[in-house]
């Protein structure tokens, strides 16, 4: 929440925020730092993942796998030598169970790493993944917009002085 508030803290010019000054200071000290915005572009996709839905889907798949195994046991022996349904389904189920174990392992790792990251970065430890990543995605977007305003060679008429550097004001479309 504090990250987003930096964009709402305005200066004497209402089009310039605290975030503009931070972006300007960062760009002045090390211009390569601004590349982080593009390096974590996957935040948008991460913010759309609903962990509860993934957990529910995993539980449903485990339940369905158990149901199929129970039905396979109930089918009994093949009718003749051409009846390969049970054999093929058993092979498929084994592969599905292996895949399900891998997915469950990945989900467990994801949850553990997510808790570490939330503990380190989040204000509220009960924060959900989509809210956590969504916050950083919104900040990334705000930061990127501030980068568009910042420039070394800006026309004084269309900019605000930041002590030797300029913030370009967006021109209104007519």
H and E string? HHHHHHHEEE
For the record, give the distance between the C-alpha atoms at the N and C termini, rounded to a whole number. 35 Å
Please work out how many helical segments DSSP would assign: 7
Query: In percent, how much strand structure appears in the residues?
Result: under 5%
Strand element count: 3
Structural class estimated from helices and strands: mainly alpha
Which consecutive residue ranges, at least 5 long each, have pLDDT under 50?
A: 152-157
> Strands of the biggest beta sheet: in what spatial order?
1-3-2
Sheet having the most strands = 3 strands, antiparallel
Question: Which whole number gives the mean pLDDT?
Answer: 80
Rounded radius of gyration (Å): 27 Å
Q: Which overall shape is indicated by the principal axes computed on the Cα atoms?
A: elongated
Query: Can you give the helix content as a percent range?
Result: 55-70%
Quick recap:
This protein is mainly alpha-helical and 174 residues long.
Describe this structure in words.
There is one protein chain. Strands 1-3-2 form a three-stranded antiparallel beta sheet. The radius of gyration is 27 Å and the shape is elongated. Helix content is 63%, strand content 5%. It has helices at 2-8, 18-29, 36-39, 43-46, 51-75, 85-121, 129-149; strands at residues 150-151, 159-161, 166-168. It contains seven helices and three strands; from the N terminus they run H-H-H-H-H-H-H-E-E-E. Helix 2 packs across helix 7 and helix 5 packs antiparallel against helix 6 (85-121). It has 174 residues and is mainly α.
């Amino acid at each position: 929440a504090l990250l987003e508030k930096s964009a709402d803290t305005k200066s004497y010019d209402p089009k310039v925020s605290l975030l503009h000054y931070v972006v300007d200071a960062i760009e002045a000290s090390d211009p390569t730092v601004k590349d982080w915005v593009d390096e974590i572009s996957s935040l948008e996709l991460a913010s759309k993942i609903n962990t509860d839905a993934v957990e529910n889907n995993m539980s449903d798949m485990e339940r369905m796998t158990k149901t199929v195994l129970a039905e396979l046991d109930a089918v009994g022996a093949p009718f003749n030598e051409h009846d390969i349904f049970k054999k093929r389904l058993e092979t498929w189920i084994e592969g599905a169970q292996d895949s399900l174990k891998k997915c469950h392992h990945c989900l467990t790792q994801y949850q553990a790493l997510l808790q570490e990251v939330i503990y380190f970065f989040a204000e509220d430890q009960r924060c959900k993944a989509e809210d956590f990543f969504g916050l950083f995605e919104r900040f990334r977007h705000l930061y990127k917009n501030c980068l568009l305003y910042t420039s070394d060679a800006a026309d004084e008429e269309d900019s605000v002085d930041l002590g030797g550097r300029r913030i370009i004001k967006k021109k209104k479309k007519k």
